[in-house]
Amino acid sequence: MEQHVTAYIDRVHSAIDDLPREQLVALGEMLFRAYQNGRQVLTLGNGGSASTASHMAADIGKNTIGANMRRFRILSLNDNMATVSALANDNGYENVFSEQLKNLIQPGDLLIVTSGSGNSPNVLNAIRCAQSHSAEVAGLLGFDGGQAAKLVDLPIVVPSDDYGVVEDVHLMINHIMVDHFKRRLAEDRPWVV
To answer: pTM score, two decimals?
Structure first.
């Protein structure tokens, strides 16, 4: 067991060491631009990535803003099971996110997709839908980024072919963003309401 623990932690360390720092900075700027302009941020994912998308929406929506400060407008598209299951049943699972985006997405909004493989049809359809409505799209991806890496405006690829490691690092990226905005907005106190 000890050998397994050490090996797994070493794989996580390696993936963290190889993260593209400049792309993390760019994601922070995309989020700040959405905040400054009062645009909404939408997150999504499947399986473990859905959990990360939900976690990101909760953390950025709640944990970044101090008293009397305007909050991020953020929502996870995988959180309403009634909507997801109705769309999957009636329109196909490949459309569960793009159909929601047709109701919500506006020019200048930010979509953050989280996907280990970057090849899930519902994620790819969501990217295309968001971009057709002039929204920005960032991707938290794994493996080689898949098809999503070629479509999104900002691909952040965790260089690992281990889903556990990829998901661990995606969650860490979420916490980096939350920590950054908690400090940045508290110091700058932009747009006090």
So the answer is: 0.95
